[in-house]
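ARCHIVE CARD
CATEGORY: sequence design from structure
SOURCE FIELD: tokenized fold
FIELD CONTENT:
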């Protein structure tokens, strides 16, 4: 599975955090969620931003479809 790439974030003066992926808005966080995100983003920022935007599962769907539990 590949690593997350292309994510950036901008913290606005009003406390809002905008996460973009390859230049397109992927999520906007306000209030407490923005504060949680900023506290967590110090580690691996690409992975954190992918997780917060829900864009972290790409690439494993085919593997899951072939699992015996998911076969029809």
């Amino acid at each position: 599975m590949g690593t997350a790439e292309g994510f950036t974030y901008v913290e606005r003066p009003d406390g809002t955090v905008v996460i973009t992926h390859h230049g397109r808005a992927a999520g906007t966080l306000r209030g407490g969620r923005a504060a949680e995100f900023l506290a967590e983003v110090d580690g691996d920022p690409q992975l954190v931003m992918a997780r917060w935007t829900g864009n972290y599962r790409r690439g494993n769907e085919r593997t899951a479809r072939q699992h015996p539990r998911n076969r029809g």
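CARD ANNOTATION: The helical segments are 31-40, 45-53, 61-65. Residues 33 and 39 are 10 Å apart (CA to CA).
SHELF: design records, drawer C
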